[in-house]
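SAMPLE LOG
Freezer: B-3
Tube label: C17
Construct: single chain, 224 aa
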Amino acid sequence: MTLEIELRGARVRYGPLEALHGVDLPVPAGAMTVLVGRNGSGRSTALHALAGVVPLTAGRVLWHGGAVTAREITALDTYRRSRLGMALLPAEQAVFPSLTVAENLVVAGPLGGGVDAGVELFPELGRLLPRTAGTLSGGEQRMVALSRVLTSPARLLLLDEFGLGLAEEVVARVHAALTALVASGRTVLLAEQALPDEVAWDYAYELRRGAIVAAREREAPPVT
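STRUCTURE (predicted):
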């Protein structure tokens, strides 16, 4: 199995609370992986540890980038990890509230898809471009944040409960976009409370109280 990134023996503490207990999380390259767990299981912490948002108290983060030899990036900050080719959609505070929608879509500069790509994916944003992002509804803010991630050139997309506040039709549209990105060779890691029925995931891990308790590979459909 060729990997994109992995946590190895990862531990994360928030004061006296340890949120991850020596987690090993290999993320296969060019596949869609789902990290499943209830609230408080450590899902968000695992994604944040991969992206460099929270530091490890023990363990390592290894960046493979589809290559045979891994590079340890445990000490790299979020900006340097993004330059390697990863993009994170957090569950909260995913937009710059004081900027307009248009400014949010171009804030990543050449690393982002820009306004046209964002509106193509979410036409609903077209009429909202001059609005300040902080004045939008939760679902509208989610579309702004998703457009930045989905239209970026990042090879690894980390999405934490991306469907929060979104209508079913929009969620289905995002699932289709993610499937197309994986088919093109990108790597997607979703953090969800349950396995999504609407998307053809490849690998799944279950987190419970900060530890991986199950791993599963989706069976290939029979050849007809």
